[in-house]
Amino acid sequence: MAEKSTKPYLIRAIHEWCSESGLTPYISVKVGVDTRVPPEHVKNGEIVLNVGYDATHRLTIGNELIQFAARFNGVSRECSIPVAAVTGIFAKENGQGLFFPHEAAPETAGTPAPESTPPASPTNGGKPKLQVIK
């Protein structure tokens, strides 16, 4: 039996922590062929999404997919994100959360993944800074 990934469990845990703390959970996603998000909001192959209960409808964080409906410029859109495409989940207000190493997409699992470098450490006294890109 294949070993289960801890990633979906960690995503659910940080999402719950954000929600219970009154913080806004955001996910960063590396967009691939299996990712269903509004393409007009994708920048450089990535998208950052608010996955708070106030911003989503029918949110499901499963072991393989994150699915929900959300409004983009006033229009409801269905989103489907493979858990493997999630590169991080964090609180908008303070930047605390988890970031994950790059995973090979299931269709390219036989090819080696490029080496990933850890994110640069913050130089402003240890407090992380995130910028919302619109």
Strand order of the largest sheet: 2-1-6-7
Largest sheet composition: 4 strands, antiparallel
Low-confidence stretches: 107-125
Put simply, the count of helices is 1
Strand content: 25-35%
Specify Rg, calculated over alpha carbons. 15 Å
Distance between the termini: 43 Å
Q: Please identify the structural class as seen in this structure.
A: mainly beta
How many strand units?
Answer: 7
Q: What's the pLDDT, averaged over the residues?
A: 84
Bin the helical content: 10-25%
List the secondary-structure elements in sequence, H or E: HEEEEEEE
**What form results from the Cα inertia axes?**
globular
Short summary:
The protein has 134 residues and is mainly β.
